Amino acid sequence: MITTTTTSIEGRPATEYLGIVTGEAILGANVFRDMFANVRDFVGGRAGGYERGIGKARRIAIEEMEDEAKKLGADAVVGVDLDFEVINQMLMVTASGTAVRLG
Q1: What is the pLDDT along the chain (103 residues), one digit of tens a residue?
Q2: 8/26 Cα distance (integer angstroms)
Q3: Who is most buried in 34, 94, 97, 101, counting CB within 10 A?
Q4: Whole-number Å distance between alpha carbons of 37 and 42
Q5: 89 Ramachandran zone, left/alpha/beta (phi>0; psi -120 to 50)
Q6: 66, 70, 75, 78: CA torsion to nearest 10
Q7: By its UniProt entry, which InterPro entries does this protein fall under (predicted)?
């Protein structure tokens, strides 16, 4: 499955647009990780726990979006957009794009 933020794939024209596909991931915040992140922010350095959490949520959202595209018979998802939100101390990542068949 080709997944790209661009609206087209060079040398592979879209022959059919199958619709918008999405994937979501919501991960709860870990209290101990939050406390450690606050300490790291205070003394400097990177908050590795948060970085891993964001990476995991992003991968889940993209995989769900690709799975939805596969069910439609798509070869690719173009115009992918990733959104990150914090809701009630939970991280939500949404991936959306257009499922297409390629020539």
Answers
A1: 999 999 999 999 999 999 999 999 998 766 445 545 555 555 556 666 677 778 889 999 999 999 999 999 999 999 999 999 888 878 899 999 999 999 8
A2: 29
A3: 97
A4: 8
A5: left
A6: -40
A7: UPF0145_dom_sf (IPR035439), UPF0145_YbjQ-like (IPR002765)
- Count how many Cα atoms sit within 13 Å of the Cα of residue 16 in the half-sphere of its side chain: 7
- Pairing of the two strands 76-87 and 90-102: antiparallel
Question: How many whole angstroms from its chain centre is CA 13?
Answer: 24
Q: What is the pTM of this model?
A: 0.82
* Of the candidates 69, 63, 61, the residue with the CA atom closest to the CA atom of residue 92: 61
User: CB within 8 A of 2, min separation 6: which ones?
Assistant: 9, 12, 75, 76, 77, 102
